[in-house]
Design goal:
The chain is 66% helix and 5% strand. The protein is mainly alpha-helical and 246 residues long. The strands form two sheets. It has a two-stranded parallel ribbon with strand order 1-4. Strands 2-3 form a two-stranded antiparallel sheet. A hairpin with a 3-residue loop joins strand 2 and strand 3 (61-64). Helix 1 (3-15) crosses helix 3, helix 4 (69-93) runs antiparallel to helix 9 and helix 5 (96-114) packs antiparallel against helix 8.
Length: 246
């Protein structure tokens, strides 16, 4: 297996929670699963350490990094700026086909909201945000966005929402679509910033972020990799909100 393949597989396992935050990276099991020796695995772990996905422990291997409250704040602040910039650029560059695709995803997302299917709601939600970034037509911005959002993807698109926050998120997505349809870059930039700030608050309330003492203290547990699990549908009783302008 090539170095790039080992890095990609290990990154995927960390980002999708197959190696949970705080758990010791099970080097022996991974070497057997990948069919490699310890040396290429440890080279891949150095890359993961540079990306902030693992903490390298001197003479003790590595553990999957936990997100601290400061990490969440820093990452969401950068993501907020990137998405706001992407939205402004997208309004001047998006094609009619791209607009139709985003509108289709939006209405599919609303169907999942009405069905209280949070897993499928998040799937459409993520695709909408990624489509807006692509529509900006800026390769550098897209690369930066992928790098930053990868660190918070599970927290952002898995965290359970309260009924009030879910309703608010739907209202904000209505405003996002309306601004796109009007090609109003300033309005879209504004609503995306507000949307990301509210999402950060929801992630913090859901307990995805730990304080510095919690993240650095305690024992690390070594466990075998597991499949990632997503949150089930939330018990929401509010009805879809009316469309609002951005």
């Amino acid at each position: 297996m090539l170095h790039e393949d080992v890095v990609a597989r290990l990154r995927h396992m960390l980002l999708e929670g197959e190696i949970p935050p705080g758990a010791r990276v099970p080097e022996r099991e991974l070497c057997l699963a990948f069919g490699i020796s310890r040396t290429p695995l440890r080279e891949a772990l150095k890359v993961m350490g540079a990306e902030g996905l693992v903490v390298l422990l001197p003479n003790r291997g590595a553990r999957a990094a936990r997100l601290t409250s400061k990490d969440v704040q820093d990452l969401f602040e950068v993501c907020e700026g990137l998405e706001a910039n992407a939205g402004e650029l997208a309004c001047g560059r998006i094609t009619d086909d791209e607009l139709r695709d985003i509108a289709r995803l939006h209405h599919e997302m609303l169907d999942h909201y009405r069905e209280r299917d949070q897993v499928q709601y998040y799937r459409c939600n993520r695709q909408i945000h990624e489509a807006i970034v692509r529509a900006a037509g800026n390769a550098v911005l897209s690369t930066l966005y992928e790098s930053v959002t990868a660190r918070i993807r599970r927290a952002r698109f898995v965290a359970p929402m309260t009924p009030a926050h879910w309703e608010l998120a739907v209202q904000e997505h209505e405003a996002i679509l309306n601004a796109l349809l009007r090609r109003d870059g300033a309005a879209l930039s504004h609503v995306l910033r507000r949307h990301l700030r509210h999402k950060r608050e929801a992630v913090e309330r859901a307990g995805f972020a730990e304080n510095v003492d919690e993240a650095s203290g305690g024992q690390t547990e070594e466990i075998a990799p597991r499949r990632s699990r997503r949150s089930g549908p939330s018990d929401v009783k509010s009805r879809p909100s009316a469309r609002i302008s951005g």
